[in-house]
Amino acid sequence: MASGTQVLLGAAVDTQWWNEGDIQADRSSIVSVLSSAALSPTSLLKAELIPKSKEAAKQNRPTVKPGVIDKNGQIVNNQPITFHTKIKSSGYSAAPRESVLRQKSNKLTSRKSLSASAPDISSTISKRQYPILSGPPNSLETSVQVSDRQTSVNCIQLTERGDRLASALSNTSAAIFNCSHSGINSHDTTFSGHSQALNHVSWSHDGQWLITSSDDQTAKFWMSTNPDPLMTMANIKGNIGMKDSNNRTDKENLLFPKAVCFGQFFFVDRFFILSSGNSFHLYKYYLDTNKSDLKRYVSNTKYKVVKSFQLSSSQQISFLSAINSFHSYLVLCSGFDKSLEVFDLNVGSVVQSISEVHSKPVHAIVQNKGSPFASQSSAAYDLFLTSAVSDGVKLWDLRSNRCVRLYSGHVNRVHPCGSGFSPCGRYVASGSEDKSAYIFDIRSGGYVERLTGHTETVIGVLFHPRYPQLITSTLDGYLKVFSTK
Description:
The chain is mainly beta. The protein is 8% helix and 36% strand.
């Protein structure tokens, strides 16, 4: 089945898009999602947030014994008494059961250790693979309203297993749904905590965590099983060292100046990225998941900026995309000046740029991230889509830095309609303002299916990673699942 995928994708990425001889002559200059270069000694991606352990804190803490003169010449009294000999128990009660009285230590856990303890996605995936030769989804299976009141669905994201769907809503909440081969089964939970509309949602690689970003100039961390946010990100530098030695607020640790438009995990959950204004920020972090009931309002969860990046010319970022399902160094970022820049976070700089991607600002970038249920050729991962109002959907190859296909026929004059790749690599989908979703043949550029039945503009489209299904979202708050007949 993997070989069949190679053949199908080979038709989509044939060598007419670039000069193969030039690639062979100087491969070191080619920008690719699947980089062959190792992490540099000074790479930003080697950064790690390591908190002090309790033992280290005790060793560094100055100790003063009772009756001893301190550095100011004052006698220190009223210190706790320490017995240096063992005191026998009164024996009035039996020894307590260890299993009952043992308390869990409130350890600060890193993302790295959480990923190690979490179940491996590849080990839990069943033997069933994505049906590579299936036709495009064209039959409506299920339709779900995300809220009791009409609200726009601004973003939809599936976990890599495809078992849960997150939706960013204009009513300030994120609605989570359970999914299966039959479509959207049930509403799971709702994450509420923002004060303004949500712009974006992003799952972690293992599907245990969710990042939401909002117009209220904050982003929040959520545990998939807990309706309360684990951490709120409001300051650019992070929440470490927010006050100086005199307990004064660090005035240089500013709040995000504008709405946090995008937030996602990066480098297989080791970091996360947030964008606001004309900058995006790379963060390292630790999550404290073991809160006791006595200290439920005290959190040791930390995040700290590693580096901030700015677009060269644009006043504001219009969209941002990066791959988290495997180790990739690249971040694709577009601005309202119609440009697109490719950042390599291994070297910490821009490695490629396009001055005019569309005739209008780019409102969506979708990379071909693949699927754990389908094999793809390495060349396919360098494909990405861009969308802009009144200028269709363009397919780009990162290595040649050129547009290689244009998909048109759908209606997109006002709203930021999204697009997406199918796991088999044969189809591209796009939303449309004529209350339809369009599926295009990736090689020919013509649309092969027009999915109707919506009551408003289709703002988002998303292929399921395991089943031949397409999920659509609309401005009036509906999710629909289409599958092959």
